[in-house]
């Protein structure tokens, strides 16, 4: 008979005579009670085995991690904590699991241990919840933009341009390493490579996205991006996912409105769809924080923090005002910051961003009008000649979650900025064409998807919100 998901069984409104459920054993108690989970929900369904009439060799194979099929009657549960249970009439072992070797035993494992077993960690309650939330968040992203008439664009993963100008990119090559072809001056001869030029894994789909926005009006990308930054922190990955909308005829104010509305929508959508998972993750976070000193604990529980973002407008503050606040702040004056703010023009660090959000304004903050020399070449230069129409959205516990800008639509100004930074016009001839032919004011932003998942799940390490993290010296699985 066709099996029914555990989620549907637990939400059933009628007592069913006979049902079939398939899943993995979480625990088996007293040779009688199986806690069965199939990944459809964080909740297990209790399956009661008639152990007196079940062969001993079958009972011994009901171990944590084993996959089983149970058929029986769905009845009201006599035990506390669950509405229904299955009185098992037939039990079949689908896949054995050696209890002594299976790593995911029903006990508390460290997050580091779970990362080392990323192929199995999703069988735990925490990671099952995280990945379901991640899935729903991704669906919310598409739902939001599709409902607003945006066109989904798949920008290339292999690219010849460096959108950020950071130079920290993974090279893509088919050239042999032991006999690399060289030019007369000894440099690698990329003309003999697969694409006939130097290529890399993309750091952003923005530049290509802009070309589509200048024809389709409003577009978004949502795909993998790569940074070869040798950064072993809790906030960085070498492979991660980016959401990047680009909108023609939007200025910076429109861009800030879009970003704020978008973030509030996807959080609300996920809270509505994942109440059980988020409630579990909130409890998990509370337990984790009990181990920390009082000063390091979050001021708000997870669901309170999410509701706070929904119920409060984001505070919009200029970079200049923010620098003044930071310069006059107690941690700056007492040299508690690792990076002391002395003068206008400093590039803000995570500690500064979190101070503004968590201590000073106590709400999400949008900083705008940054110094031109710390931002990318494509951001629109303000009339003062020293700031650009950039914006960053800062969140509690995370710091920067969104970076965006009004793009420089003036051909002459863009070319001058590229020259000043040594960016080759010939490499980006196609990008400059969008300013030659029918240019218009346009804006966009990038949101690192994993940082959004971090915020919504309450996790503190970005390696725990992506299925298989890619970090320096780690490409396992």
TrEMBL record:
InterPro entries: Aa-tRNA-synt_II (IPR004364), aa-tRNA-synth_II (IPR006195), aa-tRNA-synth_II/BPL/LPL (IPR045864), Asn-tRNA-ligase (IPR004522), Asp/Asn-tRNA-synth_IIb (IPR002312), NA-bd_OB-fold (IPR012340), NA-bd_OB_tRNA (IPR004365). Its EC number is 6.1.1.22. It is found in: Cytoplasm. Belongs to the class-II aminoacyl-tRNA synthetase family. It is an enzyme of class 6 (ligase). Keywords: Aminoacyl-tRNA synthetase, ATP-binding, Cytoplasm, Ligase, Nucleotide-binding, Protein biosynthesis. This is Asparagine--tRNA ligase. Residues 131-467 form the Aminoacyl-transfer RNA synthetases class-II family profile domain. Its main location: cytoplasm. PROSITE patterns: AA_TRNA_LIGASE_II. GO terms for molecular function: ligase activity. It catalyses: tRNA(Asn) + L-asparagine + ATP = L-asparaginyl-tRNA(Asn) + AMP + diphosphate + H(+). It comes from Flavobacterium ammoniigenes. CDD domains: AsxRS_core, EcAsnRS_like_N. Homodimer.
């Amino acid at each position: 008979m066709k099996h029914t998901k555990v989620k549907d069984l637990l939400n059933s409104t009628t007592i069913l005579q006979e049902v079939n459920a398939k899943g993995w054993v979480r625990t088996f108690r007293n040779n009688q009670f199986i806690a069965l989970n199939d990944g459809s929900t964080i909740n297990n369904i209790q399956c009661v085995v008639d152990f007196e009439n079940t062969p001993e060799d079958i009972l011994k194979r009901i171990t944590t991690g084993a996959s089983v099929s149970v058929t029986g009657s769905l009845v009201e549960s006599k035990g506390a904590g669950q509405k229904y249970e299955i009185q098992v009439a037939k039990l079949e072992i689908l896949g054995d699991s050696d209890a002594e070797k299976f790593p995911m035993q029903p006990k508390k494992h460290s997050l580091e241990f779970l990362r080392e077993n990323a192929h199995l960690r999703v069988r735990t309650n925490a990671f099952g919840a995280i990945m379901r939330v991640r899935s729903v968040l991704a669906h919310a992203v598409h739902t939001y933009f599709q409902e607003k008439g945006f066109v989904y664009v798949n920008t290339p993963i292999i690219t010849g341009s460096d959108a950020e100008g950071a130079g920290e990119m993974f090279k893509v090559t088919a050239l042999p390493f032991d006999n690399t072809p060289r030019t007369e001056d000894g440099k690698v001869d990329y003309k003999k490579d697969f694409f006939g030029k130097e290529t890399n894994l993309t750091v952003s789909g923005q530049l290509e996205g802009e070309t589509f926005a200048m024809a389709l009006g409003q577009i978004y990308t949502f795909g993998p991006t790569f940074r070869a930054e040798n950064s072993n922190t809790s906030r960085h990955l070498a492979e991660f996912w980016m959401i990047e909308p680009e909108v023609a005829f939007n200025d910076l104010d429109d861009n800030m409105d879009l970003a704020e509305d978008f973030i509030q929508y996807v959080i609300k959508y996920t809270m509505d769809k994942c109440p059980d998972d988020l409630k579990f993750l909130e409890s998990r976070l509370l337990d984790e924080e009990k181990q920390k000193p009082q000063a390091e604990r979050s001021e708000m529980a997870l669901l309170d923090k999410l509701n706070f973002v929904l119920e409060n407008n984001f505070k919009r503050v200029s970079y200049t005002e923010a620098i003044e606040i930071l310069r006059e702040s107690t941690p700056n004056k007492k040299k508690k910051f690792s990076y002391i703010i002395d003068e206008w023009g400093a590039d803000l660090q995570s500690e500064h961003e979190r101070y503004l959000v968590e201590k000073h304004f106590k709400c999400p903050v949008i900083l705008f009008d940054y110094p031109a020399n710390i931002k990318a070449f494509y951001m629109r230069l303000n009339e003062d000649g020293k700031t650009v129409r950039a914006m960053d959205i800062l969140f509690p516990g995370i710091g920067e979650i969104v970076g965006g800008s009004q793009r420089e639509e003036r051909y002459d100004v863009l070319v001058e900025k590229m020259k000043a930074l040594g960016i080759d016009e010939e490499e980006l001839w196609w990008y400059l064409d969008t300013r030659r032919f029918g240019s218009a004011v346009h804006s966009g932003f990038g949101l690192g998807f994993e940082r959004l998942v971090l915020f919504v799940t309450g996790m503190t390490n970005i390696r725990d919100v992506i299925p298989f993290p890619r970090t320096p010296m780690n490409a396992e699985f």
